[in-house]
Amino acid sequence: MQFPAPYRRLAAVLCRLSLHVNGGVAERARLTVEAATKRFPVLSPTYAAVFLAAIADVPYSLPEPPAAPPPAFFAALRAAAATAEPAPGGAASGGESEAERNGRVVGAAQALSCNLNFWRLFNRRPLWMSASLYGFLAARVHNASVPQKALGELVITYAGRALHPLSLSYDSEEYGALVRLVLELARPGGMGRNTPFRYTQVRGRFTVPLRAWWVCVAVLLNSLHAGETFAA
Known about the structure:
Elements: H1 5-17, H2 23-39, H3 44-56, H4 71-83, H5 98-114, H6 116-124, H7 126-138, H8 145-161, H9 173-186, H10 197-200, H11 202-205, H12 213-226
């Protein structure tokens, strides 16, 4: 079924309002976006991209009329996961105020957490499963307390829902690229300076053999939230 363009534009406006600095505005918009993707799951890739870009601090504008993201979006997420460098002292970047940055990241984290159709998308399509983890790894760029609290709550949800890689074959290029990046980030100094402590725990979790891939990811994400130390 073709979703009418005017409704897609309206949903796109609500998607952007989900990242509003005013928490009440953001919540109402987020609930409407959730209802739209529940009624029309075909919209999930279109709007999941907005929220992943927000937590990863990747520039992204919805196409007109709104549509699923182009391949360049996924490449940008992977690049951000590899190179994200938190600002000293948790400062906002790109001309944003701290309040605007906090609203954007908190709104995106909550939108991703509450939307079951986003989780179905992540678990059933290899490209999106990789994109979701790239987005989380890139989110280390936000090292202030407010965004990190929201991202920590997102991690709890991620670890609970990501039980098995339904869409990801162990011998696929997506799997190989994801493991290579995580192992690169796991080396000493791989995540750069000013990285929130929980992200440094990748080093211990991913120096073990990765045959039980999704168990490792679930344990990793739990440890990132808890900030615990693990020696492989």
